[in-house]
What we know:
Elements: H1 2-15, H2 20-60, H3 68-75, H4 79-90, H5 94-112, H6 117-124, H7 129-140, H8 144-151, H9 153-158
Helix pairs in contact: 1-2, 2-3, 2-4, 3-4, 5-6
Amino acid sequence: MILELSRKLLKETTEKYWGHRIKIQSVFQELLISFVRLFTADKDEAVDKTAVLAKKFLEAYPDKNLDLEELADKCGVSKSHLCRVFKKATGQTVSQYLNQIRIERACKLLSATDVPIEEIAFAAGFNNASYFFRVFKKQIGRLPLEWRKKHSVAAEIAA
């Protein structure tokens, strides 16, 4: 399409038929619209692909302790581009999203097992139990032990 429009534009500028100026403006506008559509479509698609790839990696390896630079390398983009694209696509930063995945995993473990909470923190991917407690309280609204008492399988059977 762009090549065809470029040829039309060249023909109108070199052969100078009657009304060539109006035709040149018209073809140029079509060409401009084609370029804008082409580049905005690719940009949105690239944003989506990068965010989807990053999300898949984070979901597959929530306990892997990788930094943003490594994740960006896995996605084939720069660190700043990854952060911008990820936030646009998900509404969360990479670390917020990763913490959400880890807390969901911790909740499953808390409700289904009687493993000590500190071990669950590490199993969910947190390197520091006190950080796990802070993130859990912030996201869930209560401490892990309180949440476990209310949501454990044993508590559901007793109720």
